[in-house]
Amino acid sequence: MENNKLKIIAEGVVGAIGIAFTILLSPLLRPWYRRWGASDEETSRALPGDEYVPRPKSELTMAISVHAPAEALWPWFVQLGCQRGACSTTAASPAQTASCRSTRT
Fold first, then answer.
1. Is residue 41 part of a domain?
2. Domain assignment present for 89
3. DSSP class of residue 49?
4. How far is the C-alpha of 28 from the C-alpha of 36, rounded, in Å?
5. Is 74 inside any structural domain?
6. How many secondary structure helices (H) and strands (E) does the chain include?
7. pTM of this prediction?
8. Could you read off the pLDDT of 47-74 as tens digits, one per residue?
């Protein structure tokens, strides 16, 4: 019984330390993760939808480079999104899950 209490206390301490590090390091890491993988050109150019929020309070531009021709990538890309083959959800209710069904069912 005593061993279980120590385990719970240790898990709480480790969790608190993790939260503290996240809070303390967040301002230092923010410039890096706000533009993760994106070039200077990608972060400075106008993107679709920018006209709807002319002065955003925060901006995040993240990117990845895919070294493959568009013909190889397209079949995988079109599966993304709601009511597509690769749809996934963490919905809390069956009604929310029903709005995101796989084309394979």
1. no
2. yes
3. T
4. 14
5. yes
6. 4, 0
7. 0.46
8. 888 899 989 888 888 888 889 998 998 8
Show the DSSP H helices in the chain as ranges: 2-33, 40-44, 70-77, 94-98
The two structure tokens encoding residue 14: 């480790």
Nearest to 62 by CA among 39, 35, 42: 35
Question: Tokens 């999104």 sit at which residue?
Answer: 81
Domain of 75?
Answer: 68-105
Q: How far is CA 1 from CA 5, 6, 7, 8, in A?
A: 7, 9, 10, 11
Residues 99/93, Cβ–Cβ less than 8 Å? no
Which tokens belong to 5? Answer: 């209490």
CB atoms within 10 A of CB 97: 13
Cα–Cα distance measured from residue 85 to residue 57, given in angstroms and rounded to the nearest whole number: 35
